[in-house]
Amino acid sequence: MRYRLATVALLAVPLLLAAGGCSRGIAGTPVAAPGPPLLDTTCREYSDMTPIARREVIAAIAEGGNKLVASNPGLWVGVAAALCTFAAPSAPVRDVVTGGIR
Hints:
Layout: H1 2-20, H2 43-48, H3 51-63, H4 67-71, H5 73-84, H6 93-98
Helix pairs in contact: 3-5
């Protein structure tokens, strides 16, 4: 009898902790983990990115005030990839796209 009570107690404690551990939500807006700023992306990093990540870099360049890139960001995803093959791997993509190739 004593062992049965101890077994039930040992099984009940983790269940209670698991059920009650996350009962309150956290207020606020979810924020992505910080990473390198998109405007500072180099050609080396850009070449290794997925198409979605490349589009985010181009969107950041467009939001940074580049009206030509903002007019057709889908086109500039490919143009930036092509230009980065000629630029130094350490060159920022924003400079390559705007004509400041190093």
